[in-house]
Amino acid sequence: MNQPANKNYQQLCEHFQNISHFEHLSALGDWDQAAMMPTGGGEARGAAMATLAKHIHSLKTAPMLEDTIAAAEQESLSGEQQANLREIRYQFQQANIVPGSLVEAKTKAAYHCEQAWREQRSQNDWQGFKPNLENVLALTKEEANIRAAALNISPYDALLDKFEPGMTSARLEQIFGGLKLWLPSLIEQVQDQQQHQPSYAIAQAASDAQALLSRDVMTLLEFDFNHGRLDTSSHPFCGGVPSDVRLTTRYDVADFTSGLMGVVHETGHAKYEQGLPHKWRGQPAGNARSMAIHESQSLFCEMQLGRGSAFLKQLQPQLKQRLDCNLSHEQLLNIYSKVSPGHIRVDADEVTYPCHILLRFEAEKAIVSNQLAVADLPDFWSQQMQSLLGINTDGDYKNGCMQDIHWAVGEMGYFPSYTLGAMYAAQFKAAIERQLGSIEDLVANGKLSTIMGWLNHNIWSKGSLLTTDELVQHATGDTLNPAHFKQHLIERYLP
Amino acid sequence: MNQPANKNYQQLCEHFQNISHFEHLSALGDWDQAAMMPTGGGEARGAAMATLAKHIHSLKTAPMLEDTIAAAEQESLSGEQQANLREIRYQFQQANIVPGSLVEAKTKAAYHCEQAWREQRSQNDWQGFKPNLENVLALTKEEANIRAAALNISPYDALLDKFEPGMTSARLEQIFGGLKLWLPSLIEQVQDQQQHQPSYAIAQAASDAQALLSRDVMTLLEFDFNHGRLDTSSHPFCGGVPSDVRLTTRYDVADFTSGLMGVVHETGHAKYEQGLPHKWRGQPAGNARSMAIHESQSLFCEMQLGRGSAFLKQLQPQLKQRLDCNLSHEQLLNIYSKVSPGHIRVDADEVTYPCHILLRFEAEKAIVSNQLAVADLPDFWSQQMQSLLGINTDGDYKNGCMQDIHWAVGEMGYFPSYTLGAMYAAQFKAAIERQLGSIEDLVANGKLSTIMGWLNHNIWSKGSLLTTDELVQHATGDTLNPAHFKQHLIERYLP
Ligand SMILES: [Zn+2]
Ligand SMILES: [Zn+2]
């Protein structure tokens, strides 16, 4: 019997399929920890997850990989196989840079920090949180320095590269620098225009009723409940695997409106996962492209669809039925396009949200370059919030630098993806409108499936077969162009 | 620096600690599959769990183990360390007998079969279930034959040994043979005595209310919710790890009474897990002793405590509060000591339950020795049910041979543990009463903690430090003696 012509490539595929099985279990552990696990289970779970992370790391750094990848690169492969091999090499490189002992130490510290954070945040306990965070960030910096040396880039760029392959702080400073030029005055103009808008009394809504409404909304957005579920956790997220996507959300009994859009947002993430190419499940080419592209899908759902007039109109019967909500369509529209600087990033409106990212981007750069100590973070936070949004957070840690889970679990360099995602989402909207007509009209005419079809064809089903720039170019005819985001904000908020 | 005097033993401990981390993830996957996972996630999960099982198997059969165990056996160890080493060797031997490829194939087939069974059972779809079961049982027989050859015992004994180390079908036939001599006439006598008891109308109770009641009962039984949780699944079980025990149950809106005792039962399993020795967490000596000892703890909770007069009296206020239940204490007692032959093992009363086990014991022996084909199982089932309990199950597969999950997941040789557990539970009761006085009095006087303390001291905290016979001897002054079970049944049902 002949050997297949691409036996090295086939061997790599088998190896990475195997890795994906352990990553599946890791995703399950993450979800369970956030949504299900009792507090007392944290210590043992942390140890188990650390061992799992170490095992995955050892598989990604298996001694045979270097030669097998080199040999596979000489084999005759299809274009898609070549793309998969590129992603295999990327994963191998990323894993090889960092020693297994550091991976394990960081995972353990992150689990410990996150567990404690759940309690500490609600108690505004900065003093309790600080040493855990210092521990996690010290390991994160160690990782950044090792990555930087290996890739010959700056430590912060080395962290960015984990979430946005190819993205640099220089490019980000240009993009965010541009934002700074027009966003503050736009926020002012919108606030001026909205200053006479009344505020609306929002009736209490039980969590159970909101959970039913959430399922309605997910169904409307064509979420596949045969391949996923919705639960609650203190920090909403989308996890699991493409065949079994785990969404979580939280419900505020006093105000259902933010939770509702939270579900729309996470459903956008989930649709991307559920739409990843079947053919490439378990292979690196079958993964989501990047964090920013992921966020573009959630923000597309939330901002381009969810907060639009036509979608809110469709939602009204369910709001009445599930929550006995009597808000008019105009009131809903006003609520969901209200611009108002606030403390909490995940509750921020679309217009002020980038300010929360600018703050975190500056803080991360300063921490990683040792210009800002963790102990000084609360002051830095308050100063930046003051200057960007006129908000003082002195002593209010839970609504300040303790609000996010990211740093607690050692994820630095992730935050910029949120605003990049908002920009990509606006760019996709512009492309769809050029190709298929107004999104508002499509939704109003019951053609949500047409929009989902475009996203599936152009984004979801592409997995990581294209690079980010190729994907965006292919879908929209251009690489990232922040002008679409500005255009979108002006259209919606300064009509 | 000197090497520790027991470096081989220490190396084994580290290795098995590592294994326990992967087993932790496996337990999580099992729980999630039963209680949380959407159907469409089954295929990918099955593949991931098979890879995990294969990995655990490879760790338990690591080439270095044989020599390291032999070397450790020459080292200077404490009595407890020697016990741990004995359990390490047992696990190594058990794992080495079966090739990894068979473990993987069986795990995959079992997951596939179980997934389908969830739907098929409710649809009474024997024709759909049969080929899946044949597949799983063919692999189980293959395993039995391989184990039998290695251990030089019969294939069925080799399966028993997985759940009850040292137990043989010869000893079981003697024990069960004894049962057969007195149980049928006892069932008749009890039914005679109960024939004029009225049947009681039980009010409907919503699942949510039953779930709250379940938490009350678990709290009464001192379940630690900081280290565990309760959820629902189609087949109640107790899983997870000692620091995070996962109970599941099911609620019947039309009759809360069986679900309530189901929770008491599973809480008994959970208490055992939560009480396993902290010092030995993650080591083989820290595991539960055997399936029969596990079942003895759940049955002690259910039969010796839960269905007793004093416990039911304590429960009455909660029954009123949660379910608005107006049953009198006498009515509750009658309901919970009603003897009535029925189709379903898990719903069977304490007196007829062993008949369900006798049937399965006979069926398993016949299947493993190729005297019974899976295709003929429904007929065999109906005949046995007819002769043992006077019940015909022709065509009623869902309440016949499709009712249990065990065979669907390849667990043969497990069923006898249930009745062995009932016998051990009765023997523990007798020992407690000799040492501490009547269990009814202890419960009535608010001294449930005293009973829990006895179980913790004599059973839970011993883990696997003793053999089963040593454990029982140490706790009760005797090895297994079925006379206590007979005595218990006579006291309760023929007073
Ligand atoms: Zn998001
Ligand atoms: Zn049990």
Automatic annotation (TrEMBL), chains A, B:
Q: Which organism is it from?
A: Shewanella youngdeokensis
In the UniProt record, does the keyword Metal-binding occur? yes
Which leading EC class covers this enzyme? hydrolase
Q: What is this protein called?
A: Metal-dependent carboxypeptidase
Identify its protein family.
Belongs to the peptidase M32 family.
Pfam families linked: Peptidase_M32
Please, which domain of life does this record's source organism belong to? Bacteria
EC number(s) given by UniProt:
3.4.17.19
This chain's function reads: Broad specificity carboxypetidase that releases amino acids sequentially from the C-terminus, including neutral, aromatic, polar and basic residues.
Keyword Chaperone belongs to the record: no
Ordered alphabetically, the record's keywords are: Carboxypeptidase, Hydrolase, Metal-binding, Metalloprotease, Protease
Q: Which PROSITE patterns match?
A: PEPTIDASE_M32
Q: Which CDD domains match?
A: M32_Taq
Enumerate the catalysed reactions.
Release of a C-terminal amino acid with broad specificity, except for -Pro
User: Under the GO molecular function aspect, what terms does this record hold?
Assistant: carboxypeptidase activity
